[in-house]
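URGENT: need a sanity check before tomorrow's submission.

F., can you look over the Stage II sporulation protein P record below? I want to be sure the sequence and structure line up before it goes out.
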Amino acid sequence: MFRTFNVGKWKRKWLQALVMGRTFALLSIGTAMFFIVLGLGGMAENKLNSSPLSSMKGVAAQLSTRFFVDMMALEMPSLPQGEGEATLTRNQVAQFLVRLATNVNPLDPKTLLAGEVPGINRDAAIPLRLSIGNQTGIEPQDYPTSLDKGGNAQGEHGGEPPQDVTHGEVIEENDNGTEEPPKSTDPPTKPGTDKGDSPTQTEGDSKLRKVVFIYHSHNRESFNPLLKKESSNPNDPKKNITLVGKRLQEQLEKRGIGASHSNKDYSSSVEGYNWNMSYKYSKQTVKQAMSANQELQFFFDIHRDSNRRKESTVTVNGKDYARVYFIIGHLNPNWKKNEQFANEIHERLEKNYPGISRGIFGKTALQGNGEYNQSLSPNSVVIEVGGVDNTMEELYRTADILADYIADIVQKKKDAKPVNKPIPNPTNGKDVGKTVMGKTQSKSVGTKG
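C-alpha cells as predicted:
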C-alpha cells in the first residue's frame, strides 16, 4: 500500500518555519544593534559630558572613606578596619544596593516618584563627596522664588523683603531671652564702611595683599533667631548672611590672609532686579573686583541653606556648630579643579570637626545656575553655611573654623606665599623689597638733591 504525502501542507509548514527563522534573525540583529548603539552612546556621553552619568549620580558618593576601607577589609584580612562601630552594616549595604539598582534613595520617598513625575526631581543635587555626618546624602535645600508678571522676584527668597521683615541694624538685645549676634573680639570696622548707603565692599587691613574675595549672590538670606521670627525662608536687607561673610573676612585677616568682602544688596541697587539673575549680578561684582585687584585668587560665595535645625546643626566637643555644604557647578568645564579645591577644605573639616561638613554636591542647569561664577577661577566655590534656624554664635564658630583651614590652604598655595607679608613702607636711603607673586624685586629709594 502506498502512502501519499500532502506536499502543499509540508510546503506551507516549511515556509512558516522560514518566516519565523527570518523574523527571529531580524529580531536578534535588531536587539544586538540596539545594545551596540546604546553602548556607544554611553561611551560618547562619558567622553563628552563633564558631569557624572545619570545612572551613577550619588552612587560613588555613597561610599565614604571609612565605608570603603571596611569593604576592602573583608577581602584583605591584613587591612585594619576603622575604629569604632563598623560602617558596613546591613542597613548601609541595603541602602547602597537599592540606590545602585534603582536610583531610588530609600530614605527619600520623593525619589520613588522622580522617574514617573516630570520635574519632581529636577532640583536634586549630585553628591560628589559625602561626609561622616551625611551618609544618607541629604541634599542642600533651596526654596524657589515666584515671579510676578514683569519677571521680578517676589516673596522672601532674595526679592523684596516681606512686610514683617525688620529693617534695623544688627540686633543688640538684652538678657530677656531674645537672640543677638555675639560681639566679635576683633577691632571694629571703620565707620561708614559697611552699612546703609556706604560702600558695599570692605578691604580690611590695608597692609595685607588681598588674595581672597568673599561675596553673596543671595545676600538677603537670613536666620530666624536673628530676625526674631519664624519663617521657612527668612530674608532681610541688612541682618543676613553678609554678617557671616564679614566674620570670615575678619578672621582671615587675623591669620595674615588679606581678604575683601562685598555685602552688595542687589535687590535695591540693580534696576529691574530679577532674583533668577542673581549670579549674573554677582558675576559682575567678582569681575569688577578682579579688574581692580589682579592678585585676587580665591573666591567664596557664602549662602545660607534652607534646611531646618536638625539637619543644619552639629554638636562637637559640647559646642553647637552650623553645618556647611560645598556646591560645585557642572556647567563649568573645569569643575573638577573647583571640586578639588573644595575638597581640601572638606577633608580638613572631616578630620578635625567630623560632621560639620555635609559634603560636596554638584549641580547642573537643571538644579540651579549650574556655573556659579566658578569658571572665573579654579579656586572658587559656593559654601552654604548653616540653615534658617541657626544662631549667630553657631554661625560665627563655623566661620572661624573655615578661616583656619582656608588660611592654611592659601598659605600653602605656591602663588599665595607672600600674602601674609605686609607691604613694605619705603624709607629714604634704604633698599625696599617688593614681593610680586612670589618674586622679590629690589629698588633703591634715595633722597633728592
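My own read: Residues 144-199, 418-449 have pLDDT under 50 and may be disordered. The longest helix spans residues 7-48. If you see anything odd, call me.
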